[in-house]
Amino acid sequence: MTTATNENILMMFEEINQKLDRTQLQIENIGKQPAKETIEIDNDELIGEIRQVKTFIEVSNKAQSERLSMLETVIRKEKRQFDFSPTSINTMLIVLGFMSIILGLTLWATSLKAEKEMCSDNDLKYRYFQMLGHATQEELATMDTIFYFHRNQQKIKELRKQVEVFEVNVKQRAKLIEQEERLKKEKEALELKINSK
């Protein structure tokens, strides 16, 4: 909006300059043309007045040109500045850029969430089959039904709980076996000490 206004102002200043130039040419032409009628006025006085008017017009024309050039430079500098009003193109481009970034990040986060859920489901299925110790065709079909075709959150929670209890039991059993082996080694070491004495 401001760019169009600035251009209109520049065009008006250009028109004023052209009109001033035409007026100056007309005044010069009038001064050069011979008078058709004989007027009884003192030529020296008339020439002096014409020179004064011509000087005044030249001075005012020069001052007007300087003002116009100053205004033109100010307007050109203003044109280079960015306009961030709500209706400007720059503002709209920035807003659209941010919106596209936000949309892209949202889509990316959604795809990561879906991928995370799929990995979590696969992990749970693997741990379940590891708990069972085998995987038959029927069990694989049941898992696909529970996780994909007819997703059953309640059944998934139950499976997760069973697997977690099994894993806790396995860890406890491993600790017990480890303690038992350690005790056996200590017992053997003590028996060797006793036998060697």
3D architecture notes:
With about 200 residues, the protein is mainly alpha-helical. The protein has 2 domains: about 80 residues; about 70 residues, no CATH class. The chain has 5 helices and no strands.
The oligomeric state is single chain
Give the mean pLDDT. 82
Number of strands: 0
From the helix content, strand content and strand pairing, which structural class follows?
Answer: mainly alpha
Instruction: Give the overall shape.
Output: rod-shaped
Number of domains: 2
Query: Radius of gyration over alpha carbons?
Result: 49 Å
Q: How is the main sheet built? A: none
Helix fraction by DSSP (H/I, runs of at least 4):
over 70%
Portion of residues in beta strands equals under 5%
Order of helices and strands: HHHHH
